[in-house]
Amino acid sequence: MSMRIGYGFDSHAFKPGVPLVIGGLAIEHPEGLAGHSDGDVLLHAITDALLGAVSAGDIGTFFPPSDPRWKGAASHIFLQTALEEVATAGYKIVNVDTVLVMAQPKIVPIAGELRERVAELLGVKPGEVGIKAKTPEGLNQDHVAVAHATVLLESVKLADTPVQMVTTAEVDDDIDEVVKGLVGDSRDISALGRKRPAFDTDDLT
Ligand SMILES: C[C@@](CO)(OP(=O)(O)O)[C@H](O)COP(=O)(O)OP(=O)(O)OC[C@H]1O[C@@H](n2ccc(N)nc2=O)[C@H](O)[C@@H]1O
Asked: Residues in domain 2-C-methyl-D-erythritol 2,4-cyclodiphosphate synthase (predicted)?
């Protein structure tokens, strides 16, 4: 079994007149978070942690802030894409831990609800999600919300029964296609989401 860790960070300024959404939860507060999307600082940090864990780039490479399609978008869309990248790479979540750094609102009274909502969006148990909060003491950033997230992933077990793979290649040039026919066109983890086959044909004769 192999394991991967990921880390994500995000920040958004508070802004009057917009709803506050954190961790996919609508929270009663006089101000919301400014952003191209719904400004969900927590889901953005978790999305980046997931993408980073499988070397798939970052939220901005998938959903550029310059793209009008993501204006006002609900951030669980970004999270869903990151979860798909994790699954495609052959991993699943072990646990997620987070820290919210913000003066207001206080997070402790809603931490249980937040944990359940984030767990639901991630498809994990609430006990596999950590929600913590910090007052930004001495940082002079009382009008900003910051989120940090770490994730631990483990590889998904393949079937216990080994599958025998036997085939022949007519000519050396066909070897890539022959191997692809045996193992499929799956992909390994690669830098910034670049697709590459999950096998290395250099050693084959
Ligand atoms: C979620 C979205 C939806 O549009 O918008 P917001 O709601 O946060 O505004 C975006 O995905 C939010 O993308 P985010 O990644 O936070 O934005 P930025 O920090 O501006 O980074 C945009 C892109 O520029 C890259 N970047 C950023 C800073 C830097 N010095 N060099 C870079 O190359 C980042 O890697 C990213 O790929």
From this structure: 3-153
